[in-house]
Amino acid sequence: MSELAFKQISSQIDMLSYDERIKLLGKIVQTLQSPAKTPKKESSDFDAAFGLWKERNISVEEIRNKAWGRS
Q1: Who's near 16: CB < 8 A, 6+ residues apart?
Q2: I want to staple 16 with a disulfide (CB 3.0 to 4.6 A). Which of 20, 31, 51, 66 is the partner?
Q3: Whole-structure pTM value
Q4: 68 in Cβ contact with 61 (< 8 Å)
Q5: Contact between 64 and 58 (Cβ < 8 Å)
Q6: Regarding predicted confidence, which is higher, 28 or 38?
Q7: How many whole angstroms separate alpha carbon 65 and alpha carbon 59?
Q8: How confident is residue 29, by pLDDT bands cut at 50, 70 and 90?
Q9: Distances from the Cα of 6 to the Cαs of 12, 20, 32, 34, in angstroms?
């Protein structure tokens, strides 16, 4: 949080009455104690990749040779 934003919030809190500050503090504590709601990520279709190399004759050595430019 930027210092300017903090000062603005701080000045607004200073204008609250004691009861309003206690209520605000209670809401802050409740918010911090509740688990964060994160949006569910779309699951990738991991299983779809399993058949990608089916019936293709390729070896680890061949991949390494092509990757490193060694023939």
Answers
A1: 24
A2: 20
A3: 0.43
A4: no
A5: no
A6: 28
A7: 10
A8: very high
A9: 10, 19, 18, 23
Two structure tokens written together for 29:
């504590």
31-69: b (≥16 Cβ within 10 Å) or e: eeeeeeeeeeeeeeeeeeeeeeeeeeeeeeeeeeeeeee
| DSSP 8-state secondary structure symbol assigned to residue 53 | T
Token pair belonging to 52: 């990608």
Alpha carbons 69 and 40: distance in angstroms, whole number: 41
| Closest to 10 measured CA to CA, from 24, 23, 27, 30 | 24
